[in-house]
Amino acid sequence: MSLIRLIDRMSKFMMVFAATWAFGLAFLILANIIGRSVFDSPVYGTAEIVSTSIVIIVFLQVGYAIRSRSMLRADFLIIHLPESVQRIFLAIGYLLGAAFFLMIITGGWEESVLSYIEDEFEGEGALRVPSWPARWTVLIGSALALINYIVLAYIDLFKPKSLDLEIE
User: Distance between CA atoms of 17 and 22, rounded to whole angstroms?
Assistant: First the structure.
């Protein structure tokens, strides 16, 4: 199995896991609403769980969104250029995206390690949620996004047909 195929499968698995997590969150929110309005007893900690989960869900899905070419891009000028120039501009954009996620990784690495070592928590009152899962998900999701941007730059520059759209 090629490294790119492995990355594609990991991206898809993380996307499915995030979608399942979001689906479960919907039931938690529903239980909180019903508990609050009908039984006057909310599900404590719902706000803390949801706020942390949003970050986790986004970064679990970013790799798949990039690899499946679903990320937002403004190509209204590029589409009027020759195909070879379009591919070069797309590759430059992908490399800039990779640089962006590399900056997230380098900027968040130390704080992520410290949040795990120091057992950092967020939230006050009913439920305190550990910070490290969200921080580490940001790092892992950013690493996968970086790799997927590099893969797309490679595909657009060298056009190997066997690697395009393996994610589907």
Answer: 9
User: What CA–CA distance (Å, rounded) separates 51 from 91?
Assistant: 34
- Tell me whether residue 95 is exposed, middle or buried, using C-beta atoms within 10 angstroms of its C-beta: 0 to 12, 13 to 18, 19 or more: middle
Beta strands in the chain (DSSP E): 121-122, 129-130
Do residues 149 and 101 touch, judged by C-beta distance below 8 A?
A: yes
Tally Cβ neighbours within 10 Å of residue 77.
Answer: 8
Whether the CB-CB separation of 144 and 15 falls below 8 Å is answered with: no
Q: Mean pLDDT of successive 10-residue segments in the chain (168 residues)?
A: 83 95 96 93 88 94 91 79 86 93 95 91 78 93 95 84 54
pLDDT tens digit string along 18-44? 999 999 999 999 999 999 999 989 988
Task: Report how far residue 26's alpha carbon sits from residue 16's, in angstroms, rounded to the nearest whole number.
Answer: 15
Report pLDDT digits (tens) over 43-57. Answer: 888 888 898 999 999
